[in-house]
Amino acid sequence: MIVGLVHPGRMGAALGALLVANGHEVRWCPDGRSPGTAERAAAAGLTATPFADLLAAPVVLSVCPPAAASTVATTVAEAGYPGVYVEANAISPARTQAISGLFNNPAVRVVDGGIVGPPPRPGHSGVRLYLSGPADAVDLVSGLFDGTAAKAVGLGPEVGTASALKMAFGSFQKTSRALAAVSHALAADFGVTEHLRAEAEAMGGNALADPGHFPNAAALAWRWGPEMREVADALRAAGLPPELAEGSAAVLARRTPDRDDFTLDTPTALTHLHHHPEP
Ligand SMILES: NC(=O)c1ccc[n+]([C@@H]2O[C@H](COP(=O)([O-])OP(=O)(O)OC[C@H]3O[C@@H](n4cnc5c(N)ncnc54)[C@H](OP(=O)(O)O)[C@@H]3O)[C@@H](O)[C@H]2O)c1
Fold this sequence. Notes:
By secondary structure, the chain is of the alpha/beta class. Helix content is about 50%, strand content about 15%. The chain is built from eleven helices and eight strands. Strand 4, helix 4 and strand 5 form a beta-alpha-beta unit. The protein binds NADP nicotinamide-adenine-dinucleotide phosphate (NAP). NADP nicotinamide-adenine-dinucleotide phosphate binds near residues 9, 33, 37 and 118.
């Protein structure tokens, strides 16, 4: 099959290389792109074509900076593209749905995509390509990656579902790295990095993989919130960013009605996070 790719960045070129290795022709358009993109595309075995020829592909894959996703989609839609458009960028469900609405051509089927994992490389662990949208289009896109290091996972018929998973995972993954860096910076200032590392190793576990701790955390939030304000003060005094600690305190403040209620179950604890009014 012919696949159009907008554009061959680090992730797009890596996915394109998998498709080429699977026997597909992957077209990209050099207009406006940098030498770095051209080098990645050549190394991945992609075919440079005018934009109109790229749009002759029955499947177009959008893998670009999230901030450019709407502009890229608008360009494709306004050119009258009639095929399957895979919106595979890290954008919100609402933005993905708005992008879906850009396509007036009734022949277009928009597939929502969420990519999780680093760009796939031979000999390394793969990447997951979560897909949601019309079943036949999801199956078509999944089939392109059959047997490759990109594992396609269907998430049902709604455009927005795959983006929601990407947002939920990315929120934790990116924020936890930022949090860890702030903690290390504060510990380094006071010469206690090795103790911080030791405590981190003793703590173990993975907060995202273990929802069972949410009720306990909800019951204790009334005490943790003020502690986070102390953390913010310590960070501010060290010239480090206090915003994440302050944000955490604000989230914990929503838990005030759950104070010392150790009877909550996990779904209820999550529901309360939704419905408690802003402090
Ligand atoms: N890289 C990862 O580890 C990873 C992991 C999971 C998901 N993703 C997702 O994959 C998508 C792309 O990430 P990436 O790492 O491949 O990005 P990237 O390496 O920065 O590449 C982005 C590509 O889009 C082009 N581009 C840059 N600015 C543009 C603009 N304003 N309009 C149109 N095209 C533009 C770039 O071309 P020029 O630079 O030549 O202009 C480049 O070819 C993102 O949505 C990201 O969230 C990436």
